[in-house]
Amino acid sequence: MGSKASEQRNRVVTALERVRHQIGLVLGAAAGARQSAEAELAKLELEQHIVRVGMNNSTSDQYAEWSRHPAANEVFGLLGSVRGQFYADWEAGPNALRELVAHNAPGPASQPPGNWLGRVGGNPGITAPGLWRVGSATVSGKDVPRTFDVAVPLLDESHLSITSAPKTRAAVDGIVQNLLMRILSTFEPGAVRVHLWDVGQLTAILPDLYPLSRTSALTLYDPGRLEDLLDELAGHIRRIHATGMQAGHTSLREIRRASGQRVEPFRVAVLYGNGETLEPERARELKRVATGALAAGICLILIDVPTMLSTSVESLSLYDERHAKSSMTGPDLVVDLDPPMPSGQVIRAAGRIAEALIAKQGGPRAFADLLPTELGKESSARELRAPVGFFEGEPVEVVIGDASPHVLIGGPSGSGKTNFLYSLLGSLAARYSPDELALYLLDFKEGVSFAGLAPGRRDASWLPHAKLIGVNVNTDREFGLALLRFLADELRRRSAAAKLHEVTNLSDLREQDPGGHWPRIVAVIDEFQYLFAGRDGVTATATQLLEDIARRGRSQGIHLVLASQDVAGIEAFWGKPAVFEQCTLRIAMPKARRVLAETNNAAVSAPKWHAVINHDSGVAHGNQLAHVPDASTKDVFNKLQHRLWERYSESFKRPRLFDGAHSPVLEQFPAFADLKPTDRPRALLGQSIDVDEAACGVELPKAPGRNVAVLGAATAEALSIMDSAARSLARQYHCGSVEFVLSCPIEASVPAVAELVERLRADGHEATLVDDLPARVIDIAENLSSLDKARVLLLYGVDASIPALEAKAPGQLKSGLDQLRVLLKQGPTHGVHTIGWWRSIARLKDTLGFAGTDDIGTWAALDVQGNELSPFAAGQVVHWSPRPGRALFFDRTTHGAPEVIIPFQRPEGLLDG
Fold first, then answer.
1. Of 117, 407, 444, 500, whose CB has the highest number of CB atoms within 10 Å?
2. Which Gene3D superfamilies has this protein been placed in (predicted)?
3. Per DSSP, what are the bridge partners of residue 385?
């Protein structure tokens, strides 16, 4: 953890040295004085006798012999003074030590078990005792021996190394079990988790604690899989560092004190070795874990695990089953170890703690448990943080920010991926207001997963945070591309603002520009692999945009959530790992593959309604298993949505809903409602596949080539385009200023055309369904320069009219077809525009004749292959495979390349041809 971790370790060492110093002052005061006196007495001849025999064991004859020495009075006087001072210090010493331990080890940390064993602790886990009793020590006193408590620091303060002696396994278990019961009984249920690993035993590790194994308080590990425990601990350290210490704190203890909450439980990892040196790789992993563990609230108790740790470690070395030496009291004092707590009482106490923990967890958790007590109180300036599930009652959070900017979610059909997305979206929306969070939601699979977040016929509410909702877009890859283009534009806008304010990230931008609107953006793309399904321009452009957004979006608060059933088949990313490398937050549903790291198989064994949450790019040590509550069934998410809607709907617009399964309705389109009479009328042909709810239109000014061709034999779509073009134009002409001339030789389409004529007339316009198209074409062509009003020719099935147009009446120099060519070439400059439907490209070419493609400035292709359209697209290669309900649109005056549009739905009452 760098310099901050070093500072934290130094503070821990300093605190422990201060405790040791207090103990040393008491234990060493008299010893120091005595050593000084003995140094002076070394000059005297009696020193050897005094040291060997000692004052307390002297006989009367020896006293008589010493008393005759010339220096006896001086010696006895000095030694008596030293001895008096020695015992005077010891009179206060043990009392001072008892006070020291009582102050640093309150309650179960030092009191006899009878005072607390069997009771459930109440410490919430924000602070922890500094010392924990393991036994006592006795020193000789003037009148009676003096005894004081011996305690060791744990949890935030220090690790503990225990070295056994032969035949002392039971004593070691007693020490460990006593310490664990003291710790578990001090804190409220859930505040401590114990991890047990024993290289030599499969199931008999501290059996008295087994009642806890059905809760989150106790976890056992396979004796041959030490790496599983070390990976899990390393994951906790990294996660806490990433999610908490980036706020400026150097330890979990500081985070608890600053927030006043227990953001993480204490963890005690007990490792039983066999005295043999660990494998080099395991030893290195253990050393790395131990170095960062204390700052992350993780304490190691190592039994017969020979290793050198570069961090604070206290030690207990057993002489036998009852005695040991401790690094806290030095090698000169023998520690009398506390006897093991009675087995039956420990089992019952562990059972009570387990029952209390289960009762506190309240059984299965619900979606409502994910929600905060107050809505919209969090700030997204630095990151987004929200619980998405629970691990045995404790919330499991997802953190989206600079450290984990993008999310990759994987899970096969039926694994609960949609339910997880609802849990994530609901938890985020409940914590952050729409000013703090903007959601763009896209579902490529055939379904309506997100449709309920937009207003509908049965429910008028919507999710205020949602700006865009796209459903049923599995065939509209262009819509996904449009979303990526929008995000890229927003990224450029934010980058420009950051540059203007001389900052580099969103949090600093919001600080420097408090009046700006800079919410964090989360774009969720479900089944995103469909976006890259083809080998075409959409895939190439989408790949480039996605890589750029993934790489640079983190600093500007733009985050991607990419979900898929299987990411293995995305050819677009073979050899291009940029996107996946940026998705450091990986979420694997049960049976998901290739989402986590290659060797991480945690999702394979995950139970239903669970997810593996991993903030470390899928590496195993970052795994967190979470039970995801039901968030997607009826009336579960809706309750939250209604609360948010009632709170924010007046201040935020409804989201843009794009539903690929439904054709847009012209009358409901804002662009149609806004049409007014103008000199440059615009024919609306369909809906653009774009983030904005935009109509695709063609301006028809008095300029060459402003004619429109509808190409293909798809009758329903062709009738729709012709209909919407005519009705939109009708709104832009003053009554009496235009004549609509309609021709339809296709018998099946005549009813639809006739009804359009009636609608145009109802709008006050002159509309004529002609029977003799050649005659009418000739008449208009011959009088182009003297027309009194504009003309719009709506020609249905022009290819079917060609035989009649080709025929020449007696005395005519030009046929109707010749005059139609004149109208196509010269008509637009005189206010005569042709909107024609040709059912094949060949027939259109026949109509236009040699070098006539320029006369069709705009076209909408239906069931026509892309390679046939190149002559009408400035010779460029056109990638287009026909699909129902879609058209390819190109306007040579505005388009660099053709775009896909959705024809409008024809009004009810009109018959399909």
1. 444
2. P-loop containing nucleotide triphosphate hydrolases (3.40.50.300)
3. 399
pLDDT band with cut points at 50, 70 and 90 for residue 202? low
Please give the average per-residue pLDDT across 66-72, as a whole number: 44
DSSP 832: E
Check residue 105 and give its pLDDT: 82
60 labelled binding-site residue: no
- Cα–Cα distances (Å) from 168 to 23, 132, 576, 752, in that order, read 28, 21, 58, 97
Q: Among candidates 365, 439, 431, 436, which has minimal Cα distance to 398?
A: 431
CA distance 244 to 267: 17
| Residue 32 annotated as binding site | no
Rounded to whole angstroms, how far apart are CA atoms 51 and 64?
A: 17
Residue 108 has which token pair?
């179960």
What tokens appear for 660 in the block? Answer: 């690929």
18-48 residue pLDDT tens: 555 555 544 454 444 445 444 444 444 444 4
Q: Measure the CA angle with vertex 328, ends 325 and 332; round to 5°.
A: 45
DSSP 439-498: EEEEE-SSS-TTGGGS--SS-----TTEEEEEES-TT-HHHHHHHHHHHHHHHHHHHHHH
Report the C-alpha gap between 243 and 582 in whole angstroms. Answer: 17
The pLDDT tens digits of the residues spanning 809-837 come to: 666 778 889 999 999 999 999 999 999 99
- Residue 412 known to bind ligand: yes
Contact 448, 471 (CB under 8 A): yes
Top-confidence residue, 807 or 40: 807
Strands (E), 465-604: 466-471, 520-526, 558-564, 585-588
What is the rounded distance in angstroms from the CA atom of residue 196 to the CA atom of residue 205? 7
Give the contacts of 229 (CB within 8 A, at least 6 positions apart).
Answer: 195, 197, 221, 269, 271
413 assigned binding-site residue: yes
What is the mean predicted confidence (pLDDT) over 497-514? 93
Is 852 annotated in some ligand binding site? no
Token pair, residue 525, equals 């793309």
Residue range 781-794: mean pLDDT, rounded: 92
Place of tokens 């000013």: 435
Tell me whether residue 414 is annotated as binding.
yes
Q: What is the secondary structure of 126-156 as a DSSP string?
A: SS--S-EEEEEEEE--SSS-EEEEEEE--TT
Q: What is the DSSP letter of 341?
A: P
Is 417 a known ligand-binding residue? yes
CA angle in degrees (0–180, nearest 5) for 801-712-692:
125
- Tokens 């890859």 locate to 477
Taking the C-alpha atoms of residue 327 and residue 545, their distance in angstroms, rounded to an integer, is: 60
Average pLDDT, the chain: 83
Residue range 708-734, pLDDT digits in tens: 999 999 999 999 999 999 999 999 999
Q: Write the CA distances from 408 to 298, 488, 536, 574, 582, integer angstroms.
A: 29, 19, 24, 16, 9
> In angstroms, rounded to a whole number, what is the distance separating the alpha carbons of residues 272 and 270?
7
* pLDDT band for position 77 (cuts 50, 70, 90): very low
Q: In 544-655, where do the E strands start and end?
A: 558-564, 585-588, 610-614, 623-627
Residue 221 confidence (pLDDT): 82
Residues found in the chain: 913
Range name among 349-353, 392-396, 617-621 with the lowest pLDDT average: 392-396
Mean pLDDT of 343-358: 87
Within 10 A of 892 (CB to CB), how many other CB atoms are there? 16
> In the predicted model, is pLDDT for residue 154 greater than 50?
yes
Are the C-beta atoms of 910 and 720 separated by less than 8 Å? no
pTM, full prediction: 0.68
**710-720 burial by CB neighbour count: b if 16+ within 10 A, else e?**
bbbbbbbbbbb
* C-alpha distance from residue 235 to each of 228, 368, 382 (Å): 11, 28, 22
- Per DSSP (E only), the strands in 358-410 are 383-391, 394-401, 407-410
Any known ligand binding at 291? Answer: no
